[in-house]
FAD-dependent oxidoreductase
Amino acid sequence: MRVRPTPEAPFDLEVPVLIIGAGASGMVAALAAADSGCEVLVIEADPMPSGSTALSAGLIPAAGTRFQRDAGIDDDAELFAADIQAKAKGENAQALVDLLARNAGPAIEWLADRFDLPFSVVTDFDYPGHSRRRMHGLPSRSGRELVDRLRASCESRGIDIICNRRAVTLFRDEDRITGVEVESPDGTESIGCEALILACNGFGGNRDMVARFLPEIEGALWFGHDGNKGDAVIWGEALGADCHHLGAYQGHGNVATPHGILITWAVITEGGIQVNVNGRRFWDESQGYSEAARAVLAQPDGVAWTIFDARIAAVARQFQDFKDAEAAGAIRTSDTLDELSAICGLPEGALTLTLGAIPHAGADNFGRVFGRPPLEPRYCAVKVTGALFHTQGGLSIASDARVVGKSGDVFPNLFASGGAAVGVSGSGDSGYLSGNGLLAAVVLGLIAGRSAAQQTTKEQAGT
């Protein structure tokens, strides 16, 4: 990744707004810019739009939406912002938290009203740290559906998404970005632009950067998108941009192994537990799935067994990933705990002792309070490990998503959204509140797209 002066030769192609990355953030930015009347081009390194979004459950937290009201849920942006800060122990910039919490609801309703995305609220279980049920998802509860619907919306509005194009160089004229150089199967080409939006996610797929900034999770399974090579941060450092919270990330301690399938954390929030290979619990599972990654990896062999029951499985089955795990044989079942212990290779009687030690009222020895019915036959188990999903630190941005330099000044026509920008997950793993990744992707994508279009229009008008 390079930053160079603007070449003397003309660009091969010029567009008003150029977006690097065709995940949720890049495509939302494209829709927002086009909706504002601006011509836009999206370039994507992969053969098709995907990004980290396609690997997720596609759930976007938002407060005060009509979907919540229809479900009888009373919520607002102030409460949402307080939940974000509480999970991150106040480490986030309050202005950014407020920006995301305030605009998430309008963003969801804009996508639903303008582009017919059929959102609904997950109403049958709670996510750790959220004081209200505010996760909005599409019918399949899959990120792949979100990506596909956003791509279809772009296509229907004539927005060009050119794949197999990896941006390798940014061209600059002092503090302005003038264009990029991209590599394609046919060679290199240059694209000039009046505004550039970096929507190329984080750096979890760059092992050197993970070792540099996230050494405690360096050896974890990488469960994110391989294209997350840290391009935005690398370019930002070369430009003199300010970067923040590069040690923040979202982990997950519930990935079925060796199948490599994400198991929804609903199996825990509904009353499930995790045990190690000795059949013993080892932490307060209610803290959250991000910090679960390190907790699980610290156990013998770096694995755990997640234990739940048929009632919980019925809740989890609304997620396609869980159905895929069942189809792959990752979910073991039995009518007795002793038989389940044998199936899982756990010590005889271990699960019976462990479940029998869970109190019916009050907190257990780890500080967890169980508010759900105790597990009962038919019992279920899945072998899991810890994984790194995506990074949460990135380029500092202003309220219009423009990138901020180390001097405190903004770059006039450079924007960042989604994983390219700093998130609201604090400085490590425990600050990640469920949905923070797509929250930043969608809201900052919308803001960046509108801001870039507005600035381009002003410049074309000479104001």
User: Anything to note?
Assistant: The first strand starts at residue 2 and ends at 5. The first helix runs from residue 24 to 35. The chain has 14 helices and 21 strands.
